[in-house]
Amino acid sequence: MLPADQHHDAEQVRRCLRGELVGEELTPRGREILVTSLHCAGWPDPRVAEISRMSTYVVALIRTRLGLPAHQFDAGGVR
């Protein structure tokens, strides 16, 4: 469960995933929640960037700062 001060960030992440917001409109904490959530679901950086409409550079920067390893594509384009 998220602390009360992060509920707004979580709602913004949900809106971003629905295509209502771009990643740059999220707070820094919201972008971290977004990248962490999609990374935990097994999504590689290019897919996270596509969904969030952030650059792959920004996604990789956030992921690296959070200490998360990069996911690799296999020959079929899936990790």
Please write out the topology.
Layout: H1 7-17, H2 28-40, H3 45-52, H4 56-65
Helix pairs in contact: 1-2, 3-4
H-E string: HHHH
- Secondary structure: helix percent: 40-55%
Number of strands: 0
- Note the main sheet: none
Q: Regions with pLDDT < 50 over 5+ consecutive residues?
A: none
- Beta-strand content estimate: under 5%
Ends: how far apart? 28 Å
Helix and strand content put the structural class at: mainly alpha
Distinct helical segment count: 4
pLDDT averaged over residues: 87
Quaternary arrangement of the chains shown? Answer: single chain
Outline type: globular
Radius of gyration: 12 Å
Protein described:
By secondary structure, this protein is mainly α. Helix content is 53%, strand content 0%. The chain has four helices and no strands. The longest helix has 13 residues, at 28-40. The N and C termini lie far apart (28 Å). The mean pLDDT is 87.
